[in-house]
Amino acid sequence: MNIKKLLSKKIHQSMIQAGIPKKYNVILRSCKIKELGHYQINGIISAAIDLNINVNDLAIKVVKYLNLKKIVSKITISKLGFINLFIKKKWLSKQINLLITSKTLGLTKKIVSENIVIDYSSPNIAKEMHVGHLRSTIIGDSIVRILSFVGHNVIKSNHIGDWGTNFGILIAFLKLNNKKLNLLLSDIEKLYKQAQKKYIEDINFAKKARLYVVKLQNKDLSCLKIWKKIVDITMDYNYQLYKKLDIKLTCFDTMGESTYNNMLSNIIIDLKKKGIAINNNGTIIIPIEGMKNIKGGLMAVIIQKKDGAYLYATTDIACIKYRYEKFKANRIIYYVDARQNQYLKQIFHIVKKAKYVSSNVKLEHHMFGMILNNKNKPFKTREGKNIKLNDLINKSILKAKNIILKKNPFLNKNMLENLSYKIGIGAIKYADLSKNRINNYIFNWDKMLSLHGNTSLYIQYAYVRAISLLKKSNVNLKNFLDLEICFINHYEFDLAISFLDFEEIILKIVNEGTPHILCNWLYKITVLFTSFYENCNILNINNKILKISRLKIVFLTSLFLKKGLYLLGIKTIKKI
Ligand code: ARG
User: Fold this and answer.
1) 83 and 170 assigned to the same domain
2) Mind listing the pLDDT tens digit for each residue in 189-245?
3) Mutate to test the pocket of ligand 1, among 130, 336, 346 (most ligand atoms within 8 A of CB)
4) Pick from 213, 247, 281: which residue ends a domain?
5) Structure pTM?
6) What's the number of domains the chain is made of?
7) How far, in Å, is the centroid of ligand 1 from the Cα of 137?
């Protein structure tokens, strides 16, 4: 149930009855000051100004037609014309009780299931994943969880960089140095750097490298063998990393650039035939109308170089066509950093123009900013190198371990390992997910591993409190499903009413791909739960009805925290 939607619908009806034209939408907000009401209607004021009517008179009229007797206990009108609504305890009690047995935690909106491809993580081969891949991987994974939760058919797509000139360079270098292929990823990375240097400095080597690119494109067996080995070594390493991070990507989701290689020549022919691509002195380009380059000249995307080589863009065009034909994609979402925004816009424009997808397919770039250090510079090692993802994860786990040991020095080893892992990984993920992805964010170890404030540990800790209360109570709530929840103070009420925002939050993320609003909501629930926990007696009360009622609120808190963290890809803990 979406409480705001429910109220808004009824309010809109009464606005129309009060003579306000239909186009005026209801603006309904939760009240910050609870004494004023639980919800506030703000939309009346602008209508009154436009219609030249006294705000108060119009508000009174709207209230006269409001049909909210079952839901609302009191309605007040402020001097400025705001209408404040107080939610009925009895109504809330009924809604909250229903949540206890709801499999979807109150998410009742029927979703028309869509085929949604999520393009995320997508590291490049022959390199260890570094901190630059963190955001795409973590945000993409959370969105996969959320879209699946509401009932969409999600196709995870790891568009790894496993094709192109780089492979020619690497293969040429390995052959030249007679290198055996039983290498570690760190060796490959080093060799790759040496190979790139040689490619720039040595013309003959560069020629050879280009020859190997063509050989690889033409499926030369010996080249393919080396290529496959390099891809396997890199991805085996990455799969371990995904597992460690509890990211849902496996080898079945890997559809790298090489997947589309066979389609590329036909794509070029077709785009030329359709008059979309043109030959510009031997280079095949697609001019983009309506977009200009920095110098004010014509903007164009190159799809084939003079030497016949295809590009990143050619692959992305083919890839969208493939996703539409093979997966019947209704929507394709890219979790790729903001620097590729213009590039992706061009690709989307091209595939729509070429009719490779039907016009109602949604192509979305959910971009994100960079991770910065405390000096507002890109987050790198002291030597200015990229921070390896694995090193970052290990450091977080180690820091979590020290925090736990301070709190609980005698914890057994297994427990300590398990807890530090869940807390360490949770902290990295939450620090990222809790920021609006559009912006850059500053990486701060102290803040992200704090027991207080908007952190995963604060939420994980509240969960521990909730489940230990439930355990200690020894009450089986299933035996008391019919017993009404009673609200005798605002701690109970404020927490309970916030549960009803869950559907609205989740559906917003489904549309916009913004997990930070789930983080903010979980944080709000945690703050409210902490006040409730600290101010209300739960276990040591004689009034059995009140005790069960409060336990129900604790139980629901635990469900929401667990589900919320799961949807972010973060594990709960049972103890600290
Ligand atoms: N491998 C690319 C990079 O590291 C990201 C790929 C994003 N996905 C895509 N379909 N272009 O920049």
Assistant:
1) no
2) 999 999 999 999 999 999 999 999 889 988 899 999 999 999 999 999 999 999 999
3) 336
4) 247
5) 0.94
6) 3
7) 12
